[in-house]
Amino acid sequence: MRFRPAVPTHLSDHNDLAPVDDHRPNTRRWATRAAYSPVMVVVSLLALIGILAYGWFLLNPGNRGDLLPWLLVVAAEAILVFHALMAMWTMLSASDPRSFAFHAAKDRLYDADANAELADTDDATEWPLHLADEPADVDVLITVYGEPLDVIRRTATAALAIRGAHGTWILDDGRSDAVRDLAAELGCHYVRRLTNHGAKAGNVNNALTVAKAPYFVILDADFVPRPEFLEETLPFMADPNVALVQTPQTYGNMHNIISRGAGYMQTMFYRFIQPGRNSFNAAFSVGTNVLYRRSAVLDIGGLYVDSKSEDVWTSLTLHERGWRSVYIPATLAVGDAPETIEAYTKQQQRWATGGFEILFTHVPLSPRRRLTLDQRLMYFVTASHYLTGIAPGLLLFVPALEIFFDLRPVNLTVGPLEWFGFYAGFYLLQVLLAALTMGTFRWEVMMLAQCSFPIYLRALRNAFVGADTKWSVTGATGRSSSPFNFMIPQVLVWVFLLGTTAVSIYRDMTLGYLNIATFWNGINLIALSAFMAVAFGEQAGLRGRRATMPPSPDPLPLPPEPIGEQVEMLDRSAIERARDDVASLLAGRAAQQDGSPEPDETGPRPQPIHRRAIAPGDTPNPLSEVSR
Predict the structure, then answer these.
(1) Where in the cell is it found (predicted)?
(2) Of 320, 417, 462, 508, which has the fewest CB atoms closer than 10 Å, so is most exposed?
């Protein structure tokens, strides 16, 4: 027996999540283009030829110029060539992860007899889910840390509307009474902690002490899930070796330069790279829009808490334990990309620091890693990926060496046309491939790629010395008064390039010809000038908003940052009261069991709508609060 999903009453017809047809979800097309289009394969092969030819040109001893600029070019281009080759290999390895077993499990996801009993309401959110003819309970965990209430409401409302019976939990690390009231209004479970130990991963691990479903979904507060989320992910769990099912991060707010650039930067990864990693069992979690098997997470002791990139570390640990991961290129949740230079800088620095931590502390290529050779290589690519963001910074200074010191990376016997032919074969085909991937050429991506090297250098330093990285909300618009506070290195480099270009133009006018170093220095200056223009526009917008805003009272204190970022001040009196509440509650239960008089009830008692979380082993946890 089949039932047509009902339209959730709490979703507007104008909401993006409102159903647009009467068909079952399994009749809808896969939400992305296939990786194996003939044009894509041809361009990929041409790009591969261009990569190899350019690498041969650079390493040919007959073309080598002065040592210092040649080493800078070789170091930067070696990073780019290696990662381009790995991207080609991974992309061409992609395949559809939906096997016969997946389709069989999906067809039996709902039990017809159980659904028949619910036919009077036809509420798809109450349909029991089944795997291998056994009930499959699911918890949807929404991690919250100071996001606006309207953002949390949007995500929680959509999570409640996911088809298939499930529990919806709001995990509030911001400890906001307003968020607790919102959870009660919507009918969500609510969990808060008195500490922020372990940041987001610690928040989830704490919730797992009370959310006991064998499968759980993690959603960031700004990612709105689609109703078919569980229908497209849960069937993969029919394979008992699958630990996680990851879906893409798709952004719905790409309405300014920063958000478009940041969003489109992820397009190739989610559309082509992650699907290819399925072939090597190396697709990793990105921290949101992901379904986990609880037993797999417990097998590794919970989500990894010693890094802000807990998602990659958790995936790596699961793979070392022999678990499988699956990535599906279907848009099942839509979130917010960073909209400001501040938000973009913090996001990229956090991600890059996590990758470099793996590179320095875990050494993916080490034979001590309990991974296959393919997995070691894939994780090495992941850990070293942000070196590709440092490479443009090295290349920025090569023209200056020629302008000021007459030092060239290639000798004078190499003509400009010969050099340009090899260079174009590498870079222009890369640009063409990226344009095919994103559907169009995005200059915003080129600008951010050229101007983000100070962010990744700082992340490299943080990972090398073990410095901590502050946690921040990815989609936050930022609280800084000026974007220039987060781009001081870029401003200094822009001033340097401006002066260098002026000197170079004067020299070329004196000599009577245009030097190629002047041309490339000008290109670099244009890219940084565009970034500066974005910053000036953002600052002007901030000033305009401040001018039109009415005076406001003193703001409420922000939620404390996760432990490790600052000295954490605990409310000892609150902890003692919580312990007394737990002791009183346990004593009352013991008194009821043995028939002895209950303890004195004249003192304060816990609120009846709350109970304290009980950690594994039935150990009371006085640092958590749960509302059901």
Answers:
(1) Membrane
(2) 417
* Alpha carbon distance 233, 227 (integer Å): 12
- For 460-606, strand residue ranges (E) read none
Tens digits of residue pLDDT in 357-383: 999 998 899 888 899 999 999 999 999
User: For residue 424, how many other CB atoms are within 10 A of its CB?
Assistant: 13
DSSP readout, 538-590?
A: HHHHHHHHHHHSPP-PPPPPPPPPPTTSSPPPP-HHHHHHHHHHHHHHHHHHH
Find the Cα–Cα–Cα–Cα dihedral 244, 249, 252, 257, rounded to 10°: 170
- If one counts every other C-beta atom within 10 angstroms of the C-beta of residue 598, the result is 12
Give the list of residues 6+ apart from residue 233 with CB closer than 8 angstroms, or none: 217, 245, 247, 291, 328, 332
Q: How far apart are CA 129 and CA 266, in angstroms?
A: 33
Q: Is the dihedral of CA 463, 221, 249, 107 positive or negative?
A: positive
The separation between CA 76 and the C-alpha centre of its own chain, rounded to angstroms, equals 26
CA distance 158 to 162: 7
- What does the pLDDT look like over 419-456, one tens digit per residue? 888 887 777 777 777 666 655 668 898 899 999 999 99
Q: CA 359 to CA 356: how far, in whole Å?
A: 5
Higher pLDDT, 535 or 117: 535
Q: Say whether 129 sits in a helix, a strand or coil.
A: strand
Identity (one letter) of the amino acid at 461?
R
Q: Which helix (H) or strand (E) holds 444?
A: helix 443-451
Please provide the size of the chain in residues.
628
Q: Give the tokens for residue 214.
A: 């064998």
Closest residue by Cα to residue 379 from 349, 356, 346, 351: 356
Terminal alpha carbon distance of the chain: 33
Of 154-163, 364-373, 462-471, the range with the lowest mean pLDDT is 462-471
What is the SS3 assignment for 54?
Answer: helix
| Tokens found for residue 565 | 């970022």
The whole-angstrom separation of Cα 515 and Cα 166 is: 66
Domain ranges of the chain: 36-93+387-546, 100-333
Mention the CATH class of domain 100-333: alpha beta
- Which residue type does 447 have? M
Task: Report residue 385 CA to chain centroid gap.
Answer: 14
Number of Cβ within 10 Å of residue 48's Cβ equals: 18
